[in-house]
Amino acid sequence: EFASDMAKLDNDPLIRFWWSHCEPCQEPLNWEGKPPSQGGDGGPNGEWWGSLQLLNSCGAWPTAWSESWPDPDFQPCNLHGKTCSFTNPPPIHNR
Q1: Which of 43, 7, 37 is nearest to 22 (CA)?
Q2: What is the pLDDT of residue 60?
Q3: Which residues of the chain have pLDDT under 70?
Q4: What distance separates the 2 farthest-apart alpha carbons in the chain?
């Protein structure tokens, strides 16, 4: 029920308060009018965020729950089919 979950977030006063602090740090993709924290919807083609393609995953469901862990249907979305884990980290790390 993604749409109904998003509608609940849109109407939550605490979420809107948090957005009012985050919005000045962001540059919307395609937006007209008031920001989301003030009830704006961006107009007919309003998009605050751009769509992204999933490039890598840990093997879990990103937005839903699976009956098992990790997801038995997981397919790596990278060129070499390599995956990493806590015990097998990638060779280059940003920390």
Answers
A1: 37
A2: 58
A3: 56-86, 88-95
A4: 48
